[in-house]
Design goal:
By secondary structure, this protein is an alpha/beta fold. Helices cover 48% and strands 8% of the residues. A five-stranded parallel beta sheet has the order 2-3-4-1-5. Helix 6 links the parallel strand 3 and strand 4. Helix 11 crosses helix 13 (244-262), helix 13 crosses helix 14 (274-282) and helix 15 runs antiparallel to helix 16. The protein is elongated.
Amino acid sequence: MALPRPPQGLPSTMLLAGPAGVGKRRFARSLAQGLLCANPGLHREACGDCSSCRLFVSVSHPDFRLIEPASADEANETAAEGTGNAPSGQRASRAIVVAQVRDLGDFLAVTSHLGGHKVVLIQPAERLHPSAANALLKTLEEPRPGTVFILVSDRPQQLLPTVRSRCFRVDFPVPEAGNALDWLKANSVKEPEIALAQAGFAPLAALELDQDEFRERRRQLSDLLAAQNGTASDLAATVAAEELPLLCSLLYRWCYDVLSLRLGGRVRYNPDYAKSLHRIADNTEVLRLQGLLRDLVSASRALEHPLNARLVIEQLAIRYTRTIARRES
């Protein structure tokens, strides 16, 4: 992928935005390596042979910094910055904390070790803690010559508007399904159509789902969701506590398909279960489905916080079986 031409030369700050699994992170690393390369190609692609490229591949390039979410403990330390203490019993989601941004000060203060660019890659940028985003904003307002910031975000709308406004944005859309399928087949992915659908048509996300264990668990749980005589206890007993994220993900996609069919749409995520989904959709109330989807979104947002996974699984199983109960005539 070639970058769209910025207004004047190379932008000092770029925002690579788009859904997860479409290749933003791979592109960002390739771009960073190309910017640092001593012998870049016509489109800034890295040569792969120079000393700079070798340092980059070995994760020891002195002019490159990668900023990613801190550990849970580090994030918790700054969860309540500006308010004193974190709420009792509540831990912060993993975040990019202000200390990580401030630590860039020494890196930015000195000139390039190898005489070229200096590159800072921040991913996922929407995980910037508000205090970290504000600290970064001060740096972006007065960028140092030769320094390039690359922000990667699956949810750019969650970034501070003031940060977004200082970025040259490059959008990464979901590729055409036929091209994505050809790429997955070339990578020997089993059941590429199902993997691509489950991944929301993002090919790299589909590649990550190419695991026998995932395929088997998805089939087991989907069979339970499709069962006409299934009970909440059957579903809850099948899901281990550590599988709560998997249940939330699969159940959300399943209910999305049911709601889509109920509203006259089509199956998006589970084409191999279309017959069962049509049957369920014919007997399910729209309002109940919408309520369950809201519950699933709330459960997904809380996955990184301490919670009783067993209780959440049982509650979701009960909600699902009640939601798909046959409507009264």
